[in-house]
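Key result, reporting period 2: structure in, sequence out.
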């Protein structure tokens, strides 16, 4: 293979990773749903004398757990996507042209002034 086809662009790789993550999340969500279904099916078999009130409490706790698991997973994926998006933006940003000054980091001038290390302004 030629070098150009062997190396993927950052965007192509990021797209592939995003698709892999989404597929993985979907698989995990299906697995949780299947596990909850199996638990509900077996609850009455395992504890036939549980009583309706206790059964409802157990099932409510299980549903709460599944919801928290889903929320945690979704939050994780959202943070990953934001992070990857920021990395892509940084990777595709155009470098400053030769002779152009790079803008200082936000708050740098204030910090330097507070420390007394600020450079005097050019006339």
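The corresponding designed sequence is given below.
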């Amino acid at each position: 293979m030629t070098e150009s086809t062997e190396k993927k662009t950052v965007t192509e790789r990021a797209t592939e990773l995003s698709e892999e993550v989404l597929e993985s999340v979907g698989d995990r969500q299906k697995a949780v749903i299947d596990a909850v279904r199996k638990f509900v099916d077996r609850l009455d078999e395992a504890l036939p004398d549980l009583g309706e009130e206790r059964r409802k409490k157990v099932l409510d706790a299980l549903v709460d757990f599944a919801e928290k698991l889903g929320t945690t997973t979704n939050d994780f994926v959202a943070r990953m996507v934001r992070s990857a998006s920021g990395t892509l933006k940084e990777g595709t940003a155009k470098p400053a042209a030769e002779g152009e000054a790079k803008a200082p980091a936000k708050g740098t001038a204030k910090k330097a002034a507070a420390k007394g290390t600020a450079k005097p302004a050019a006339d």
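The CA atoms of residues 34 and 46 lie 18 Å apart. The mean pLDDT is 73. This case is discussed further under Risks and Mitigation.
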